[in-house]
Design goal:
Nucleotidyltransferase, domain 5, 296 residues, 10 helices, 2 domains, single chain, 13 strands, globular, alpha/beta
Length: 296
Amino acid sequence: MEIGIDLGGSHISIGIIDKNYNIIEKIEKRLMSKEKQDIEESIENFIYENILQLKEKYEISEIGIAAPGTIIENVIIGSVNLGVKNYTLSKNIEEKLKLPVKIKNDAKCAALAEVKKGALKNYNRTLFLTLGTGIGGAVVINNQLLNTGELPGCEFGHIIIQKDGKPCNCGKNGCFEKYASMKALKNNLREALNLDENTKGEELLDIIIKNQEDKKIKNIIEEFIEYLSIGISNLVNIFEPEAIGIGGSFVYFSDILLEKLKRNIQEKGYLVNNRTNLIIVPAMLGNDAGILGSIM
């Protein structure tokens, strides 16, 4: 058995994976504001305590971690959404649990999982985005991640789509993820509807479904779709993928967002090379893609 860990800016998921890449048990936790004040301790305590328990039930050979940010030689050099720099998470976990640990960028892990086992398995040239706390991405050609040399690349969330826009934790202003991440959408909804941070995504989705004609909600959705359309069309114009996959918590909202997104990109004429069929699909593996991809 192997353990896959999906680490996000607001959640941690741990999965036990069998030889056929099936998740047979999963443990999840949402990171609240208080826990984020000492993010490294919160992450490591949760991983350590739960894997100790899992080791009593399963024979574990290896741990894989999917994490946001720039990762070089098993070190998180910098992660805007985790708020860490030069973080030796894999080494720390290895020392505590006495198991080999590898760590890769979460979006790249999810992309590999979707290409090998999920929604993008029938395409040779794909673009993948994860929409969650931020926006991650990857380009996969013939089952291989795009090679960007010594630097990881594909930081889709930090392309600038708004001049002098909202400040981003990366130090720039107007980054894509400040406008089109699921965190941005959810925060905008919470603010407009006077809801606190404990209002979960499922509750927000239910509110949207029941109140789609509400002017406040409609305006927020339309603005989100517009920014997401701009960012995706820029990437399509550069890479010309056969298909685009979108993962992260976007998948839970895809029934109400996906067709609006495709229609907006096409109708606004944002693509240089027009397509009669713009293929954008939700991640089939959902939020499990990072867990599975971390061991691939």
